[in-house]
C-alpha cells in the first residue's frame, strides 16, 4: 500500500500496529532523508513508499496499519479533504470549457471563487458553397474581428461588408451577428446542427445612410407631438437616444403559440418590448399585452418559406429567446405585409436592443482606416468625379476639357476596338465570343459572375446579402444559351435585364439596350454601368459575391 504525506494524521488512530514492520520503516526513513518534495506537497513517484524525513520517534513515524474499518477511514479522509480545501488556494481548472455552466471552473469545492473563461476555442465557419474552415480563436474575439481574420486569410476585398451569420437549419432561421458580439458566447447558445456562415451583408448599416427608406413615416410614432416630416438625422437620433420614446406600429400576422393558425394584430415595438393591442389600435396600457421581450431575445429571418409554418405572406421573421434551442413552440413567429415593413420591424428591433452600440460599430471601420492603414488591404474606390477624359495620341497625354471633344474621343476609341477586333478576325484569330477566345470566358473569373444559376437562386443570393440599391450579379441565361442576364436590386425590388449578342461588320458584341451601346465582353459592360446608369434604374454598385474558405 502506498503511503502519502497527507496520511500522517491517521497515526494517532492506529494503536495496534504490527511491531514487525518497525525496523523496515525505520530503514526506509533513513534512506529518504534527502528525497525532494514536489511543489504541491506530494512525494515523487519513486518515493511513494517512503515517509517524511522529519519524524524521529516511533510514535511520530508513519507505520503500516492492520486492517481498519473502511467507513472510519473514509470519514477521516473526508474531514482531511475539507481541511485542505479550506486552507489551500484554489487551483484553476485547465479545461473550463468541459464544465457545465453550473459547475465550478476550479478543481476544488464549489464554495471557491470562479474564474473567468479564458483560453482558446475552436470555431467552424462555413462558406456559401458548404465548405468549412476550422479556426482557433480567443474567448474575447468579436464577430468583427473574426470577419477581419477571414478576410485577410482568404485574400478578400476588405470593404467592411462581410458578416458572420448564425444559421439554424433545424429551425429554418438565421441572423447576422452584430460586430460587437462575442463569438464564443453565441456559439454556447447554439445546437450541434447550427453553424456560422461567412458572407456579404451590404444592408447591415444601410439604415444609417438612408433612414427614410427603412422607416416609413406611417410606421413611426413618437411620444411628443411632431409637425411635418422629421429630418433623417433627427429620426436616427430619436432611435439612438435612450431618453426618447419612439415606437414602430402597424399590423402584423402573429402565429399562435403551439398552433398553426395566425392572427392579424395591431402591434407596437418599444424599448421595453413588443406589444399587441387587445382593442383595435388602442395604445392604452390596459389594452396592451406583451408579445416578446427584447433583452434576452434576438430577431431572425425565416428562410424556410411560407409553406412550413402556413404563413399568410412570404415576409416572415421570428423573435427567438436566447434560451431556446430546438423548441419551435417557444418561437414568436411574425409575418409582415411586404418586404419594406419586415425590414422596418427588424431594423427597429436591433436599434432598440443595442442603441448607440450599432452606431459605434458603424463608425469603427472609418476610424480604423486611418489608424491601421499599414495593415489594411488597399480597397480600390473610384468616383466618377475623379475620372477625366485623356488624349494619348501624342507623345504626352493631355486632359480633354471640352465635353464635345471628349465624346468624340470616346466614340473614336470605341471604333478602334471594333477595327482591332475585325483586323484580328481577318488574320485568322477567333471571334471574341468564340468559346476558345479569352474574351469569351474571362468574365467567368469575376466575383460577380455566377454561371448557370436559376432565377430563384439569384433572388436568394441578393436577399441574403442585403437587398440594397445597386446590388447586382450576372449569370447565364436559361432561355437563350448565347445570352446573359443582369440581376439588379433597386428599391428593394429585384429586376432582370437580358444581355444579348449583336453583330456589326462581322464583329460580335454584347448589348443591354438592343444595340444602342455595344461592348466586346461582360467586363467592359459592367465597368460602363458602374459609372453610367444608362437604361438601368440605378448604377451597378455592390457585386453579389461568394468566397470559398
Automatic annotation (TrEMBL):
UniProt-listed Gene3D superfamilies: Phosphatidylinositol 3-kinase Catalytic Subunit, Chain A, domain 1, Pleckstrin-homology domain (PH domain)/Phosphotyrosine-binding domain (PTB), SH2 domain
Molecular functions (GO terms): insulin receptor binding
Ranges for domain Ras-associating: 119-203
Pfam families with a match to the protein in the record: BPS, PH, RA_2, SH2
Alphabetized UniProt keyword annotations: Cytoplasm, Phosphoprotein, SH2 domain
Keyword Membrane: no
A GO cellular component annotation in the UniProt record: cytoplasm
Record has Cytoplasm as a keyword: yes
Coiled coil (residue ranges): none
Gene Ontology biological process terms from the UniProt entry: insulin receptor signaling pathway; negative regulation of insulin receptor signaling pathway; negative regulation of Wnt signaling pathway
Domain (PH): residue spans on this chain: 245-354
Family: Belongs to the GRB7/10/14 family.
Designated name of the protein: Growth factor receptor bound protein 10
Source lineage: Eukaryota, Metazoa, Chordata, Craniata, Vertebrata
Amino acid at each position: 500500500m502506498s503511503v502519502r504525506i497527507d496520511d500522517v494524521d491517521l497515526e494517532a488512530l492506529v494503536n495496534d500496529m504490527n511491531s514487525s514492520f518497525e525496523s523496515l520503516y525505520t530503514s526506509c526513513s533513513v534512506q529518504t532523508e534527502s528525497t525532494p518534495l514536489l511543489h504541491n506537497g506530494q512525494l515523487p513517484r519513486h518515493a511513494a513508499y517512503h515517509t517524511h524525513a522529519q519524524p524521529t520517534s516511533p510514535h511520530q513515524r508513519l507505520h503500516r496499519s492492520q486492517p481498519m474499518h473502511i467507513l472510519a477511514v473514509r470519514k477521516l479522509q473526508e474531514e482531511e479533504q475539507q481541511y485542505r480545501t479550506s486552507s489551500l488556494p484554489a487551483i484553476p481548472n485547465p479545461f473550463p470549457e468541459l464544465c457545465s455552466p453550473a459547475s465550478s471552473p476550479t478543481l476544488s469545492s464549489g464554495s471557491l471563487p470562479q474564474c473567468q473563461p479564458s483560453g482558446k476555442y475552436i470555431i467552424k465557419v462555413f462558406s456559401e458553397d458548404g465548405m468549412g474552415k476550422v479556426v482557433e480563436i480567443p474567448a474575447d474575439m468579436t464577430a468583427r474581428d473574426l470577419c477581419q481574420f477571414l478576410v485577410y486569410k482568404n485574400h478578400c476585398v476588405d470593404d467592411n461588408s462581410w458578416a458572420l451569420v448564425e444559421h439554424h437549419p433545424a429551425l429554418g432561421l438565421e441572423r447576422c451577428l452584430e460586430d460587437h458580439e462575442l463569438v464564443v458566447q453565441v456559439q454556447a447558445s447554439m445546437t450541434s446542427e447550427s453553424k456560422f456562415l461567412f458572407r456579404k451583408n451590404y444592408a447591415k448599416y444601410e439604415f444609417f445612410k438612408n433612414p427614410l427608406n427603412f422607416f416609413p413615416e406611417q410606421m413611426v410614432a413618437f411620444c411628443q407631438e411632431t409637425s411635418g416630416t422629421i429630418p433623417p438625422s433627427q429620426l436616427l437620433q430619436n432611435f439612438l437616444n435612450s431618453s426618447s420614446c419612439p415606437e414602430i406600429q402597424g399590423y402584423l400576422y402573429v402565429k399562435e403559440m403551439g398552433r398553426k393558425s395566425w392572427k392579424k394584430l395591431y402591434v407596437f415595438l418599444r424599448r421595453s418590448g413588443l406589444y399587441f393591442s387587445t382593442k383595435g389600435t388602442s395604445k392604452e396600457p390596459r389594452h396592451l399585452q406583451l408579445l416578446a421581450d427584447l433583452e434576452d431575445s434576438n430577431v431572425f429571418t425565416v428562410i424556410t418559406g411560407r409553406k412550413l409554418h402556413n404563413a399568410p405572406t412570404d415576409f416572415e421573421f421570428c423573435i427567438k429567446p436566447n434560451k431556446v434551442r430546438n423548441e419551435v413552440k417557444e418561437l414568436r413567429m411574425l409575418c409582415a405585409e411586404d418586404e419594406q415593413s419586415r425590414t422596418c420591424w427588424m431594423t427597429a428591433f436591433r436599434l432598440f436592443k443595442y442603441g448607440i452600440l450599432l452606431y459605434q460599430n458603424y463608425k469603427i471601420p472609418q476610424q480604423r482606416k486611418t489608424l491601421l492603414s499599414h495593415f489594411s488591404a488597399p480597397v480600390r474606390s473610384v468616383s466618377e468625379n475623379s475620372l477625366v477624359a485623356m488624349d494619348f495620341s501624342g507623345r504626352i497625354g493631355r486632359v480633354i476639357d471640352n465635353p464635345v471633344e471628349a465624346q468624340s474621343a470616346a466614340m473614336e476609341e470605341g471604333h478602334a476596338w471594333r477595327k482591332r477586333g475585325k483586323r484580328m478576325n481577318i488574320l485568322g484569330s477567333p471571334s471574341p465570343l468564340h468559346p476558345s477566345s479569352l474574351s469569351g470566358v474571362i468574365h467567368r473569373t469575376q466575383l460577380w459572375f455566377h454561371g448557370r444559376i436559376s432565377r430563384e437562386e439569384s433572388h436568394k443570393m441578393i436577399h441574403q446579402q442585403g437587398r440594397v440599391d445597386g446590388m447586382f450579379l450576372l449569370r447565364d441565361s436559361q432561355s437563350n444559351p448565347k445570352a446573359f442576364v443582369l440581376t439588379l436590386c433597386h428599391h428593394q425590388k429585384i429586376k432582370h435585364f437580358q444581355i444579348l449578342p449583336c453583330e456589326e461588320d462581322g464583329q460580335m458584341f454584347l448589348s443591354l439596350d438592343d444595340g444602342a451601346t455595344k461592348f466586346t465582353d461582360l467586363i467592359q459592360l459592367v465597368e460602363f454601368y458602374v459609372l453610367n446608369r444608362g437604361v438601368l434604374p440605378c448604377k451597378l454598385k455592390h457585386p453579389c459575391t461568394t468566397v470559398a474558405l
